[in-house]
């Protein structure tokens, strides 16, 4: 199998090295793993693409490229140029340093890379490692992802739905809990949740030269979310798999609003 890997933490991120090992296990001895990842960290860029400016790409080694752009840019670079003559059969994005569950999904460049793959018609999976006190002392904080990643990816490739519905692309979001490999209790399929009271914000900062800057701030990652959600599964020690599609329509409200507003 030919696999493309990318991330949003950058080409030198340890999570990308973990993903390369996972991808190599999936690809097999006769497969290929291609890396096209951001030259610099792109956390929080979501599904951003560099639509108004060109993207510089550079080959660092055989099958290893860096792009001065977002994860979605990296996928476009791979499919439109680097791997155009032999596209990948699978796209993996991650392993992100930190969870991409709950409200984090909407901001995540890791998710953006997988989403672009799905929009291009290629099976895609985002992978993220939740970090916390129980991973801080590990020699490898990504050991849960390394141990469980191949198993979950194989299960999705063998048994999951990849066709989607209503013409919408489908991809999968996989999060590993904030524990070591031996602490993972199992796997749960769960919808995206939202942590209670958690929002991103902006904190002002005045530099010594008097210029004003803003730091974007996040909320507590251990805040509670709805029972059965991805956040709740992770906090309970389970790996969480969430099917996703790039369609932000609220179906329930669409039906109610149509009754009230449709004319003719």
TrEMBL record:
Descriptive protein name: 5'-nucleotidase SurE
Gene that encodes the chain: surE
NCBIfam families linked: PRK00346.1-4, PRK13931.1, surE
Cofactor: a divalent metal cation
Domain Survival protein SurE-like phosphatase/nucleotidase: 3-195
Lineage: Bacteria, Pseudomonadati, Pseudomonadota, Alphaproteobacteria, Rhodobacterales
Family under the similarity heading: Belongs to the SurE nucleotidase family.
Superkingdom: Bacteria
InterPro entries tied to this protein: SurE, SurE-like_Pase/nucleotidase, SurE-like_sf
